[in-house]
Amino acid sequence: MLSLAAAALMFAAQPGTVTVQFTSLTPDKGTVMVQLCEAAEFSTFTCRRRQGIAVKGNTVTATFDNIPAGRYAVTAFQDENNDGRLARNLMGVPTEPWAFSGKPEFLMGPPSFDSVAIDVPATGKSLSLKMQK
Q1: Which of the four pLDDT bands, split at 50, 70 and 90, describes residue 103?
Q2: pTM of the model
Q3: For the chain, which end, N or C, has fewer CB atoms within 10 Å of the first or last residue's CB respectively?
Q4: What is the CATH number of the domain that holds 89?
């Protein structure tokens, strides 16, 4: 028979769910492309946990299940023209809405992982991100 302490440890080790609500979208236009990145994946923006969500209204919610406790970064953009890429102007500045978790610090290019990382406990995490443009 399992002791209460052993049962609690087994429950605590179960991966949680990360839920991200995106607000301030251009209503009913395109797809929100969202990624939940580990540090090693972040520099290439090709994270294995990713999804696209059709925009209906001006908010969408992304859900990532079975996420182990750790540090992650959320990166997203609203692909208004559905071409699969973040549109940019001639200076490289995004022209489609975008969002990062944490407190992004931009110098010359995208923010560092450390500035956008969030701690996800074993129980999971919910957050709301406002799209920027």
Answers
A1: confident
A2: 0.84
A3: N
A4: 2.60.40
Q: What angle do CA 88, 29, 111 make, to 5 degrees?
A: 35
Q: What is the DSSP letter of 68?
A: P
- Nearest Cα to 18, choosing from 132, 131, 97, 127? 127
Domain hosting 106: range is 4-130
Four-point Cα dihedral 107, 111, 117, 118, nearest 10 = 90
Distances (CA, A) of 11 to 37, 66, 124: 24, 13, 13
Give phi and psi for 11, each to the nearest 5.
Answer: -65, -40
Amino acid at 119: D
pLDDT in tens, 72-83: 999 999 999 999
The alpha-helical segments, DSSP class H, found in 13-120 are 39-42, 113-116
